[in-house]
User: Fold this.
Amino acid sequence: MNDGIGSVNPDRLPRHPTPELLREYLDTHDAPCPICGYNLRGVVLVNCPECDAPIELTVGSSQLQLGAWLTAILAFAMALGFDLIIGMLLVIPVVITGGEDDAVLFLAGSLTALGLGCIGMLWVLIANRSAWMKKARRTQWKIAWTIFMSVFLIHLLVGVGFVLIAI
Ligand SMILES: [Zn+2]
Assistant:
């Protein structure tokens, strides 16, 4: 799947300004300035005449939609924040009970494990962003919502487990 070119990190590719191609393109096409929206058709400069932003000719893709990926990131980030806050609140009861309350220990242990799991999954998602982007959009959203629901359900189960041990 990785054929040399495909495995290059797109962020590290050198960027070549192409003023000739840009001028040729704008000579015959309407194109809004990505910064201010000014119609650049006929512009012969490499800066937007309206807002002076540098402009360049690039290849885009409608598949570069970060929504699903960000949803998955958000699911783990929110869960991590939740685990951290509840985990810190648990320090006091653990100390007060001398670590002898099974329910509190269960919750503290579960939240630590879940927090570490979230950090690991965040790392996996960030490290594999380009592989994620290569999947079809529908697949991306399917994975994202599966992650979101799983994270929610696992936390719910931990909460139920805590209540069951506590009563
Ligand atoms: Zn502009």
Q: What stands out?
A: The chain has two domains: 12-59, 67-166. The mean pLDDT is 85. The first helix runs from residue 19 to 28. Residues 67-166 form one domain.
